[in-house]
Write a structure and sequence with these properties.
Pfam families: STAS_2. The structure is a single chain. By secondary structure, the chain is an alpha/beta fold. It has one domain: STAS domain (Transcription Regulator spoIIAA, 2-Layer Sandwich). It has five helices and three strands. Strands 1-2-3 form a three-stranded parallel β-sheet. Helix 1 packs parallel to helix 2. It starts with a strand and ends in a 25-residue tail after the last helix.
Length: about 120
């Protein structure tokens, strides 16, 4: 399983970097987890990126889920209804694969700015 660690704010400025990392990951790895434990803010652009990654993973027959959402990020995922869809259980239902809980994996590359959504 590949883990993509997101940190800082996921907003209109940083969402494209996260989108690129998640798209590459779900196209090449059969199971991708986006760890949001380092995220301090997530707006609708971030939710959209996460849902698009889940959709792309399902399209290619792979699994995708998020973990570690807290604070504002967890609230945004809950209010939008995305949390159930992006959970490991939602991913398993979506792709038709029931399985074990994930273990940590590698991280995706990043652009290197302090506000980037993706960090090593």
């Amino acid at each position: 399983m590949r883990v993509v660690n997101a940190t800082g704010e996921i907003d209109l400025e940083t969402a494209p970097a996260l989108s690129a990392a998640l798209t590459a990951a779900v196209q090449h790895d059969s199971w991708v987890c986006c760890d949001l434990s380092g995220v301090t803010f997530c707006c609708a652009a971030g939710v959209s990126v996460l849902l698009e990654a889940a959709h792309e993973a399902a399209r290619v027959g792979h699994r995708f889920h998020v973990r570690g959402a807290h604070g504002v990020t967890a609230r945004v995922l809950h209010i939008t209804g995305a949390e159930g869809f992006l959970s490991d259980n939602g991913s398993a239902r979506q792709t038709g694969r029931e399985g074990t809980r994930p273990a940590d994996g590698s991280t995706a590359p990043h652009r290197g700015k302090a506000r980037d959504a993706v960090t090593p």
